[in-house]
């Protein structure tokens, strides 16, 4: 424990800004992964245990696209689009076979794909750590806000994630497709009786969830190292986020992700050996006091 | 829960035999025969590989069967059961390395530690429903794993507990002797299985089946569902820790992989492979998975792909474990014989 470090950081604006930004980027990446998880659970009623693999594929697709084209925008696009297609195929061919069955079966199918996807990445890209490198456009001196160091790339990352949150929230609340998706989450039988192809909606939602995770992976590629199995810790953390925020709630995922991000970045100062533990401790406190999460509703 | 689901459950809930005592004698007899056969094995086949295989089967078998008490009998799908396997291995290894107490003392002390940890984690987890339960147990597993990795001064971090675990002889048993270790592992396996069988066939075991089939009804007739679930969670943890201790003795060390989530995933898969509707299903699954693992690792380095495809084949294709097929086949034959 190093409470002095934490206290002195809280007292200095420069350190406060630096730690808050790093907390925000952890939180925003987690949000993108967790919101996909929570969306898939809300509509399809399955927890996609292989969701971390989409994050991993997003990062690897982005790296390859960046190396081939040299364009960062194309890299992000490749990460998002590639995982969307992967999600659609995965849902239609495999996951759709285990809906309504035992949770055990759903977990096993996903477990199988965690193993397969990790090995596929190892086969294609090799087992060693890779790094994509910061795109040239962002290799500029960092900004100084109140004395704290903020790389411009972090601002882009936070901006993109926030934009995704707003588009997703508004889209689900206002647009026609959003209404159909919410209706399908409530009563899929009725939606299908009204002549709407629910299989398409399920596939679409899974693709959307996979795309958001892929987007997170692509955005993370310049700042994190890439390795097979990198998705798993992200999966666990984003699951903790959805437990804290409440399964099925987008606002909950946002708040939960930001809380976890800040806990991680400030916790690493105060309790360097117990940073992960803090996260679990927080989850336990939420679970004991509000078993359905901060913004969750009791699922029937 | 709909009537349809309740009806499905009722099918598996055969009434306990009124004369449970003969069945208990039969179980003890089977256990004795199994132990004698296992003990005679080294005399017939001297191969060290075979004995090693049986020891590993004992470690994983205890772990997988204890998981079946949760998954198959109580309907609690724990995806973090491996944490107790790791806890057993590390607890025992550390106790032997740091304190130098006799092996039986370390054994009991490790079980006591596991019990305390399982009570704390279980008290939080068993309130939760299916998928939440699965993931929160998984989260605790990752917490224990990351604690092992970061607490380097005690656990050796990602290198694991190295330098070997001292194995001083006790009561004429010398566990550094391979044959003694083998016999002890077999004894622990047989005793563990027998105890778990007793739990499963006891009135408490039938209470668990009832909770699995209809928890609401169980609580209506006055069963404290939370306490029953917590009890079986802790009991299962103790058997998993025993498996971990056998593993620690076998490899003379403990590694972070023992507490990694893949151990839990393998446990779940073993149960699926062998089938959760029979008591010995997980044991059969353990033998199959270990053979599969050994073969695949010898043939290819991409052992996740092969294992993944096998899992998919079972989960989507067969939808049942091997023992389920065997039981069905017997039931069918018996039906034909009568008809």
Keywords:
heterodimer; A: 300 residues; mainly alpha; two-stranded antiparallel sheet; 73% helix; B: 339 residues; disordered N terminus
Fold and architecture overview:
- The complex is a heterodimer of chains A (300) and B (339).
- Helix content of chain A is 73%, strand content 2%.
- Chain A is an all-alpha fold and 300 residues long.
- Chain A has a domain at 35-126 and 151-227.
- Chain A has a two-stranded antiparallel sheet.
- In chain A, helix 2 (13-44) runs antiparallel to helix 9.
- Chain B starts with a helix and ends with a helix.
- Helix content of chain B is 77%, strand content 0%.
- Chain B is globular, with a radius of gyration of 20 Å.
- In chain B, helix 3 (48-74) packs across helix 13 (281-299) and helix 4 runs parallel beside helix 6.
- Chain B contains 15 helices and no strands.
- Chains A and B meet through helix 5, helix 10 and helix 12 of A and helix 6, helix 12 and helix 14 of B.
End-to-end distance of chain A: 43 Å
Order of helices and strands of chain A: HHHHHEEHHHHHHH
Overall 3D shape of chain B: globular
Global geometry of chain A: globular
- Ranges of chain A with pLDDT <50 over ≥5 residues? none
* Proportion of residues in β-strands of chain A: under 5%
**Structural class assignment of chain B:** mainly alpha
Helix content estimate of chain B:
over 70%
End-to-end gap of chain B: 36 Å
- Count of helical segments of chain A? 12
Oligomer: heterodimer
Helix amount of chain A, in percent? over 70%
Topology:
The complex is a heterodimer of chains A (300) and B (339).
Chain A: H1 3-11, H2 13-44, H3 51-69, H4 72-93, H5 103-125, E1 143-145, E2 148-150, H6 152-174, H7 176-186, H8 188-193, H9 198-220, H10 230-245, H11 250-270, H12 275-289
Antiparallel strand pairs in A: 1-2
Chain B: H1 3-12, H2 20-44, H3 48-74, H4 82-98, H5 103-125, H6 130-150, H7 152-155, H8 178-201, H9 203-213, H10 215-220, H11 225-251, H12 261-274, H13 281-299, H14 303-318, H15 322-338
Helix pairs in contact in B: 2-8, 3-8, 3-11, 3-12, 3-13, 4-5, 4-6, 4-11, 5-11, 8-9, 8-11, 9-11, 12-13
């Amino acid at each position: 424990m190093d409470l002095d470090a934490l206290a002195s950081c809280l007292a200095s604006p420069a350190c406060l800004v630096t730690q808050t930004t790093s907390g925000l980027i952890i939180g925003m990446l987690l949000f993108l992964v967790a919101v996909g998880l929570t969306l898939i659970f809300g509509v399809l009623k399955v927890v996609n245990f292989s969701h971390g693999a989409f994050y991993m594929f997003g990062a690897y697709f982005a790296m390859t696209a960046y190396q081939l084209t040299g364009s960062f925008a194309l890299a992000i696009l490749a990460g998002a689009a590639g995982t969307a297609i992967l999600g659609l195929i995965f849902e239609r061919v495999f996951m759709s076979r285990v809906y309504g069955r035992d949770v055990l079966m759903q977990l096993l199918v996903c477990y199988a794909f965690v193993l397969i996807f990790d090995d596929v990445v190892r086969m294609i890209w090799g087992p060693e750590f890779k790094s994509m490198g910061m795109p040239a456009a962002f290799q500029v001196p960092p900004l100084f806000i109140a004395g704290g160091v903020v790389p411009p790339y972090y601002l882009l990352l936070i901006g993109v994630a926030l934009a995704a949150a707003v588009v997703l929230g508004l889209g689900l609340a206002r647009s026609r497709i959003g209404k159909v998706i919410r209706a399908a989450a409530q009563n899929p039988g009725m939606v299908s009786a009204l002549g709407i192809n629910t299989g398409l909606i399920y596939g679409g939602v899974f693709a959307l969830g996979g795309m958001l995770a892929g987007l997170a992976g692509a955005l993370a590629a310049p700042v994190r190292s890439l390795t097979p199995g990198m998705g798993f810790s992200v999966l666990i953390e984003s699951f903790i986020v959805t437990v804290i925020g409440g399964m099925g709630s987008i606002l909950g995922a946002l708040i939960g992700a930001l809380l976890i991000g800040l806990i991680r970045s400030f916790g690493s100062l105060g309790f360097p050996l117990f940073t992960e533990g803090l996260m679990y401790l927080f989850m336990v406190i939420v679970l004991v006091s509000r078993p359905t999460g901060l913004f969750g509703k009791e699922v029937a | 829960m709909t009537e349809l689901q309740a009806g499905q459950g009722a099918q598996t809930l055969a009434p306990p035999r009124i004369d449970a005592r003969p069945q208990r004698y039969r179980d003890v007899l089977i256990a004795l025969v199994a132990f004698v056969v296992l003990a005679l094995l080294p005399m017939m086949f001297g191969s060290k590989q075979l004995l090693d295989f049986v020891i590993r089967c004992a470690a994983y078998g205890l772990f997988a069967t204890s998981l079946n008490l949760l998954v198959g009998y109580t309907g609690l799908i724990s995806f973090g059961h491996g944490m107790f396997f790791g806890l057993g291995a590390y607890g025992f290894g550390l106790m032997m390395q740091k304190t130098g107490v006799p092996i039986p003392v370390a054994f009991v002390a490790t079980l006591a530690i596991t019990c305390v940890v399982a009570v704390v984690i279980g008290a939080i987890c068993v309130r939760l429903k299916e998928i939440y339960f699965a993931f929160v147990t998984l989260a605790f597993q990752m917490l224990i794993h990351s604690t092992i990795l970061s607490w380097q001064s005690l656990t050796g971090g990602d290198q694991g507990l190295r330098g070997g675990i001292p194995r001083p002889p006790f009561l004429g048993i010398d566990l550094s002797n391979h044959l003694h270790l083998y016999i002890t592992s077999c004894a622990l396996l047989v005793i563990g299985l027998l105890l778990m069988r007793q739990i499963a066939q006891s009135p408490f075991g039938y209470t668990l089946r009832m909770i699995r089939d209809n928890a609401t009804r169980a609580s209506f007739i006055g069963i404290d569902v939370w306490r029953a679930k917590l009890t079986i969670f802790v009991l299962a943890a103790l058997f998993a820790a025993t498996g971990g201790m056998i593993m620690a003795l076998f490899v003379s060390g403990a590694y972070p992989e023992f507490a990694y989530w893949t151990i839990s995933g393998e446990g779940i898969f073993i149960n699926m492979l062998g089938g959760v509707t029979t008591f010995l299903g997980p044991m059969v699954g353990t033998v199959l998975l270990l053979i599969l693992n050994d073969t695949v690792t010898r043939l290819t380095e991409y052992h996740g792909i092969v294992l993944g495809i096998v899992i998919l084949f079972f989960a989507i294709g067969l939808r049942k474990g091997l023992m389920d097929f065997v039981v069905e086949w017997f039931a069918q034959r018996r039906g034909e014989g009568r008809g």
